[in-house]
Amino acid sequence: MITVEWTAEGVRMIDQRALPTEELYPVYSTYEGVAEAIREMVVRGAPAIGVTAALGIALGLKTSLAPSVVALEDEFLNICDLMAATRPTAVNLFWAIDRMKRVFAAAKATGADAPALRETMIAEAQAIHAEDIDTCRSIGRHGADLIPDGATVLTHCNAGALATAGYGTALGVIRGAIEQGKTIQVFADETRPFLQGARLTAWELMKDEIPTTLITDNMAGHFMKLGRIQCIVVGADRIAANGDTANKIGTYMVAVLAKRHGIPFYVAAPISTLDLTLASGDEIPIEDRTPLEVTHIKGQRVAPEGVAVANPAFDVTPNDLVTAIITERGVARAPFTESLRALAG
Ligand code: MRU
Question: What is the pLDDT of residue 166?
Fold first, then answer.
């Protein structure tokens, strides 16, 4: 399955809003369209957002008519600003934009002209895309060793192939364990309000024929109490220097339940999800989304008109609830301030 890709016509992605009932692959031929697709969650998931933003920036440069390096740079910085304003929580977005800026500056410093700059930036965006798949496979290999044979793994939201350029982070760990020959079952939280678990995780795991049981979010504690869950693996949108982890709303609830039941709670994320500039999770910006996601399901109203609604898209799990953080460079354990810094290098 292709989450997002560079094509001659523009940036092509699977429309994740339409899944699982329809498999649509719109092509965005303008960078404004790509930014809108990120904002509207046609594409979502922290690494996928970063990759898509890089491809969108490359598209903006490719289609730019700027005649000079100065004009191209002006346009480039405006495109970066537009991408940065799409979604606030996933730090991979800002990581990808910063990387594109560094490469632009380095190429400009060598005296590259506008056509050469365009080529360099398109190649860089494609490299970000390709590296993300390799990164996920490495996360999968490191994490697989932590998953016991015969385990039922609970996951929240979608941290799979659809949330990355391919393979996934949390679901990459599950795929890695299966590739080791282990027998693994998955419990997928439906993940209200956007239903990434029901619509996306269940869909991609079923495509891979990985045994999956879908549950509503409020069933997780019940199954942990019954001893049906052996470990939890989730993704992350931003991890502070001390290991506090922002992920999809409801993750914190799962982590508290895991602690209560003595079940290991693992976070799987690339190094690009670390934000070592933030001392703790208190500083992570949390996106608020439209009340319509709470009051409506698939366009159908499920709450009384006029009711007050809160819709934070993410919560922060404190580091003491996290058993380990699985990255492409290895596994970090408490104290996270030291272990994450060592992995980040
Ligand atoms: O709002 P979303 O769907 O972009 O949120 C996605 C998540 O919270 C994922 O768990 C996270 O980005 C990790 S994806 C590998």
Answer: 98
**Cα(252) to centroid(ligand 1), Å:** 14
The pLDDT value recorded for residue 1 is 83
Longest dimension (CA), the chain: 66
| pLDDT confidence tier of residue 298, bands split at 50, 70 and 90 | confident
Answer yes or no: is pLDDT of 259 > 90. Answer: yes
Residue 82 has pLDDT above 90, yes or no: yes
Query: Which residue carries 């609970």 as its tokens?
Result: 154
Average pLDDT in the 119-141 region?
98
pTM reported for the whole predicted model: 0.98
- Domains of the chain, CATH where assigned: 4-137 (1.20.120.420), 141-344 (3.40.50.10470)
Ligand 1 site residues, Cβ closer than 6 angstroms: 44-47, 90, 157, 159, 163-164, 169, 196, 235-237, 247-248, 313
149 among known catalytic residues: no
Tell me the per-residue pLDDT of 143-156, one tens digit each, with 9 for 90 and over: 999 999 999 999 99
Q: Give the active site residue among 98, 113, 145, 237.
A: 237
